[in-house]
């Protein structure tokens, strides 16, 4: 069965968004995101889908959670709940031979998915954002072990330095 992974960038004070967008530019992180998710199903909320132009990201099947609108376009399936979205994404992963699906936001979808996630791929953006309006829920780090970590200075096209950490859910005791 495909792993459920969450991928996100978050400020030191938990901000993940502002005004329907990310409050930073992180070209280095976007390249890593693309490499990590290419060919794998994405589960996301409608507002997150709209934040990148209401077009699917190339090379990845999208399962969009929306209580109201059905999105009709290639590579996009609309569902009404996270549970339905994860089920469809797992079916797609099985059909395409991949072993991981990615939950990519937004805040409410992350909140619901956090209790189900096997892995977290977190870009810790080394800044406190004063006027964010979307937040990542607090993570009980007793539930996850960091398995890889790397620091990145702000590159030419990055607003801030980052720390990239992969967390794996601890086995149930």
From TrEMBL:
The pathway is: Cofactor biosynthesis; tetrahydrofolate biosynthesis; 5,6,7,8-tetrahydrofolate from 7,8-dihydrofolate: step 1/1
Q: What is a GO molecular function of this protein?
A: dihydrofolate reductase activity
An annotated GO cellular component of this protein is: cytosol
InterPro entries registered for this protein in UniProt: DHFR (IPR012259), DHFR-like_dom_sf (IPR024072), DHFR_CS (IPR017925), DHFR_dom (IPR001796)
| Catalytic activity, reaction form | (6S)-5,6,7,8-tetrahydrofolate + NADP(+) = 7,8-dihydrofolate + NADPH + H(+)
EC annotation from Swiss-Prot or TrEMBL: 1.5.1.3
Every copy of the DHFR domain together lies at 3-169
Stretch forming the signal peptide: none
- Known SUPFAM superfamilies for this protein? Dihydrofolate reductase-like
**Key words of the record:** Kinase, NADP, One-carbon metabolism, Oxidoreductase, Transferase
Pfam families, per database record = DHFR_1
Question: PANTHER family, alphabetically?
Answer: DIHYDROFOLATE REDUCTASE
Q: This chain belongs to which protein, by name?
A: Dihydrofolate reductase
Where is the organism placed in the taxonomic lineage, from the top? Bacteria, Pseudomonadati, Pseudomonadota, Alphaproteobacteria, Hyphomicrobiales
